[in-house]
Each structure stands twice: as C-alpha cells, then as structure tokens.
Write a structure and sequence with these properties.
Elements: E1 5-9, E2 12-18, E3 24-29, H1 35-42, H2 53-67, H3 84-94, E4 102-103, H4 104-110, H5 117-125, E5 138-139, H6 152-161
Parallel strand pairs: 4-5
Antiparallel strand pairs: 1-2, 2-3
C-alpha cells in the first residue's frame, strides 16, 4: 500500500498513514503483531498518497521530543476508525496520565463491567495509533507487562521513559 510511509523513531521503524486532511489514521510499529488487520482496515479509507510534509515533520518532531523527555502529550490530529466499544476503550487510554498505568481490569471496571478485561485487551491491541493513544500504559493486574503488540521490550522502554516502570 503506497499510502503507508515508513519513518524511523527512537523505538525503531514505524509506519504512518494520513488522510487527505492531514490526520493520522495509522501509526504502528513495522513489526506490530496485529499490523496486517489494522492495515487492511485502511484500504477502505481515503488515504493521502503522500503525507503533507509539515504533518510528517510535526509527527517526527513530537515523537523525538517525547523520546527525550520534552513532551508528555501529543497534539497530533488523528482520526479513529473502530467499533463503538473500541472507541470507548481508546478514550479511556487517552485519559491515562503520562507516567501512570492502569490494569485491564481497572479499565473494564471503568466501562462498567469488570468481566470485560479480555475485550479491553483486544481493543487495546487494535489501537490504530500507537504511542499517540498510550496503549502501552495498560499492564496486568499484578503489575506485570503483558499484551503489547509492539513487543514487551518496547512497552518496557516506553514505561521507563515515562517513569512508570521500576523493576
């Protein structure tokens, strides 16, 4: 898909896709465990064949600022495409502050049903804009690092960067 553009980041290569309005539709690691299904969803969307240079530069700059500790939140415009449940989970993920974590169970309880932990995990894995929506801030109930499609080493690195992981 020519509308997917690789960029190099502090965590390795990522792929990004924008719509014609300059909003990020996809930001994921090149070796993301669930990359294929996420990319197949993009085929139905109006992707920009080439990203706006300013939008791409802004994304790179904010990722670099985040990597060096100069940024705690992103103001990159993005558009989410997912089920209503996924969108509810992604909204909760955006509310987890920098440097903090939540368990899958805590998110399920916040949704009104503590039995939704696995569904929360699936929605977390379907996050189409990694890092921008901080799905890495979700951990196991016992504090363990679990379930990160970008790999547990990356999850640990992100949480260490934010001061949320102390082994």
């Amino acid at each position: 898909m020519s509308a997917i553009h690789p960029i190099e980041t502090f965590l390795g290569p990522v792929q990004v896709a924008f719509n014609v309005e300059g909003e990020v539709l996809y930001l994921g690691f090149s070796d993301h465990e669930f990359r294929a299904p996420l990319l197949s969803k993009l085929e139905r969307l109006a992707l920009a064949p080439r990203p706006d240079a300013k939008a791409l530069d802004r994304l790179r700059e904010q990722l670099e600022d985040y990597a060096t500790g100069g940024r705690r939140a992103f103001d990159i415009p993005f558009r989410l495409h997912g089920s209503p449940f996924e969108r509810r989970v992604w909204r909760l993920l955006q509310d987890i502050p920098f440097g903090e974590t939540r368990s899958y169970g805590q998110l399920a309880a916040a949704l009104g049903d503590p039995n939704l932990s696995r569904a929360v995990g699936r929605a977390n894995g379907a996050n189409p804009v990694s890092i921008l929506i901080p799905c890495h801030r979700v951990i196991g109930a016992n504090g363990s690092l679990t379930g990160y499609a970008g790999g547990l080493a990356r999850k640990e690195r992100l949480l260490r960067l934010e001061g949320a992981f102390r082994a």
